């Protein structure tokens, strides 16, 4: 009997702590739910939580991950936290049982992620609501559509490259002839999206191969990304003589400053320009010697083709790099311009 009783006591000792832990988790979790909110870069995004508990409100806390962003109290007092607190604000309505977190000048991708609000009402379990902020960017540029005839039998490759926005949209293909449109997307091969230099949007490309014949005379092939599209019209007098109308051009640096002399401590402005379709974007790099690893430099915020140097202290080599969607996606070298800075010659 002693063994029996000891076994019963030991069993009770093992299960009671587990039971307490389960109750504790239920009390903290409340009625957690998740909502997806879409934010647009540069605009104000509002995240809203509602709670159901009745009673005197103690406080509300907002978090992104482990970082606390906002604490709110029923008397209207609130405290903001974190490096971006200047862009944050909140509202609290005890009568409507709602709380909001407002994010001004929404940033991509920095503000994207999971947020949560924790509501504490006296005498009630804590309520936790989860919100997923998804940043949305529509493609802003017309895609670039190029063609390449692969052989004398009319086998042709259509290549469509462009900005896919965020989340990355797919590239859709159509063939139109005599007012009849066919979706040819299933025949295309698309590459995985590549994160753009802005860290927010994606670039992508898709290839469609077609055996063009005289029956394609007058046909139009179109690639579409979101609401942006580019088309190629085919004119085939007799197979395989085909005339293509294409769009897009690789960037070519057409003018730039050469060697620049400066006085130590002075300000210098370097300028680079390039042609291309779409309009090229620019990156700048510096190295003290050509054999050294290059260091990135930031161009003018409003015009990346301009590099402003303040209080320059030493000569070196500055590279102006122009690129657009064509050489970004096809791994072609960007056009590079080297600008050498040298000290002015001293008089005898």
From TrEMBL:
<dbReference type="InterPro" id="IPR013783">
    <property type="entry name" value="Ig-like_fold"/>
</dbReference>
<protein>
    <submittedName>
        <fullName>Cell adhesion molecule 3-like</fullName>
    </submittedName>
</protein>
<keyword id="KW-1015">Disulfide bond</keyword>
<dbReference type="GO" id="GO:0016020">
    <property type="term" value="C:membrane"/>
</dbReference>
<keyword id="KW-1133">Transmembrane helix</keyword>
<feature type="domain" description="Ig-like">
    <location>
        <begin position="17"/>
        <end position="129"/>
    </location>
</feature>
<feature type="domain" description="Ig-like">
    <location>
        <begin position="139"/>
        <end position="233"/>
    </location>
</feature>
<dbReference type="InterPro" id="IPR013162">
    <property type="entry name" value="CD80_C2-set"/>
</dbReference>
<dbReference type="InterPro" id="IPR036179">
    <property type="entry name" value="Ig-like_dom_sf"/>
</dbReference>
<dbReference type="InterPro" id="IPR003598">
    <property type="entry name" value="Ig_sub2"/>
</dbReference>
<dbReference type="Pfam" id="PF07686">
    <property type="entry name" value="V-set"/>
</dbReference>
<dbReference type="Pfam" id="PF08205">
    <property type="entry name" value="C2-set_2"/>
</dbReference>
<feature type="domain" description="Ig-like">
    <location>
        <begin position="240"/>
        <end position="342"/>
    </location>
</feature>
<keyword id="KW-0472">Membrane</keyword>
<keyword id="KW-0812">Transmembrane</keyword>
<keyword id="KW-0732">Signal</keyword>
<dbReference type="InterPro" id="IPR007110">
    <property type="entry name" value="Ig-like_dom"/>
</dbReference>
<feature type="signal peptide">
    <location>
        <begin position="1"/>
        <end position="32"/>
    </location>
</feature>
<dbReference type="Pfam" id="PF13927">
    <property type="entry name" value="Ig_3"/>
</dbReference>
<dbReference type="InterPro" id="IPR013106">
    <property type="entry name" value="Ig_V-set"/>
</dbReference>
<dbReference type="InterPro" id="IPR003599">
    <property type="entry name" value="Ig_sub"/>
</dbReference>
